[in-house]
Amino acid sequence: MKQGKVCVMLFLLVALGMAQVAGAQGAAEVRKQTEASLRVTGAIHIATDGVVEQVVLDTPEKLPAGIADFVTRNVMTWQFEPTVVDGEPRRAMTLVSALLVGKSVGDGKMQVSIRAADFSDGKAVPQDEQITGRVMTPPRYPMGPAQSGAQGTAYLLVRIKRDGTVDDVATEQVNLRIVSNEAQMAQYRKRFADAAMEAARKWKFVPPTAGEQANQPYWLARVPVDFAFQNAQRYGKWEVYIPGPRTRPAWATDEDAPGFSPDALAEGGIHLAGEKRGPKLLTPLDGA
Description:
By secondary structure, this protein is α+β, with helices and mostly antiparallel strands.
């Protein structure tokens, strides 16, 4: 795997020192799972044969030193399935949201890799072909995690009926921004998941009225729900977290695109699951 070591001024050690530890026993083992994530967005220009011609990152000057070059170098090795229109290969452009993950390797440095990427290109989809929220009251912050200073993000998968109400909801993953023992962290994940799903069952959506998705019997949408005491993280800043296990409900039968992970999705949005609109990546995210 092509990876880079980026100096981060002992970022992981400082951040973990500031994290609230709710239980000493077992916390040391949990700390070994700690990762730092950074979401990078931009646009990829694809040639007629599927190779990447150009990478344009959003505000690269806001990214940590070396990250823009690292992402560009890796993305330039990607190969996509050629875009064909009326039987002719065409150049294409897609938006991308890439999730970078860093792990400490000592001496104030991290080993960085591209964990996941999303090419759903939602901003380019016409409004009447999207699922949008009509009533989406946010969940209440669970009392136990709030008192302990626990923060995290629950990644929901919501099954939406044709009238826009929620038929079912599941939590695919919960990432935490606190270090504790395994039992306590499992409890935090459950409390965040339960609170997010309780709120989601009352949500109402506006289904797509045009395009290929308009006539579906139901829709699956992913909605990240963040539990935090501050505003959403600033673009270009590393965030320390403990990744949660990935699960999938039995009623979600569609396969995800290669390289997809729920935590690659931007927070605060509604993302149609199984979206086939974006280009198909043929090579691994590390470019191997």
